[in-house]
Design goal:
It is a single chain. The chain has 14 helices and no strands. With 220 residues, it is mainly alpha-helical. The chain has two domains: 75 residues, Endonuclease Iii, domain 2 (Orthogonal Bundle), CATH 1.10.1670.40; 106 residues, Hypothetical protein, domain 2 (Endonuclease III, domain 1, Orthogonal Bundle). Helix 5 packs antiparallel against helix 9, helix 5 crosses helix 11 and helix 12 packs across helix 14. The longest helix is centred in the middle third of the chain and has 15 residues.
């Protein structure tokens, strides 16, 4: 089980000399990864997290709920309107419990997502997110998927955004699945399970591997 400081050390190691070692491991285990890495050997795969208007796990989960099954541009627009409901544009769990479902629908959330957001806020005010930073990825995910409206995609994405863990593969992400199809020359888009199978050899650097796959779609 990782403590918060241990998580920080892991991330710092991978962002330092450990990142070169991680690239070497991926190049050795997977010829497709070798091609992607050689095309951009100095890729800052973690840079996207720093561009997000999100701080901490609660906001990361809220951001992921907003983004479920809609385009990135639509999710960003709705999340910006959601942030505007709070002081300093920082979503607060207690304040969110006081906002009506109708008000949340008025900024673009579906009724179901509004209910998910309010349930998340209620559970956060009760302390159910406390200590998750001290858990392993698997333990943290198991807790989060017990919340209403939070499945593996939402949980993994939020954990990656909030903590930058080095071995998270958001295998259900549509863009990632398209990237795997393109990079591996597959006739059809792979399922979430197929992406996980392909990515087994990337452990314990699946976040870095996913970063290269996402980048391959940006530069396509």
């Amino acid at each position: 089980m990782l403590s918060e400081s241990a998580i920080a050390i892991t991330i710092d190691d991978e962002n330092g000399g450990g990142l070169d070692r991680a690239r070497a491991v991926l190049r050795e285990c997977d010829p497709v990864m070798r091609v992607l890495i050689d095309a951009k050997p100095e890729l800052d795969y973690d840079a996207w997290r720093r561009t997000l208007p999100v701080e901490g796990l609660f906001e990361a989960l809220l951001f992921q709920i907003v983004g479920q099954q809609i385009s990135v541009s639509a999710a960003n627009a709705i999340y910006a309107r959601l942030r505007a409901l709070f002081a300093d544009n920082r979503p607060d769990p207690k304040r969110l419990t006081e906002i009506s479902v109708d008000s949340l629908r008025g900024i673009g959330l579906s009724a179901r997502k509004a209910e998910y957001a309010k349930d998340l806020a209620e559970r956060a005010t009760q302390g159910e997110l406390d200590g998750i930073a001290n858990l392993s990825h698997e333990e943290a995910r198991a807790i989060l998927v017990s919340f209403r409206g939070i499945g593996a995609w939402t949980a993994d994405g939020a954990l990656l955004i909030a903590f930058g863990l080095p071995d998270v593969l958001v295998s259900g992400d549509l863009v990632l699945r398209k990237a795997v199809q393109r990079a591996y020359g597959l006739a059809e888009m792979p399922s979430e399970r197929e992406v996980e199978a392909i990515g087994e050899c990337w452990r314990p650097h699946r976040s870095l591997a996913a970063g290269y796959l996402f980048e391959s779609m940006v530069s396509a």
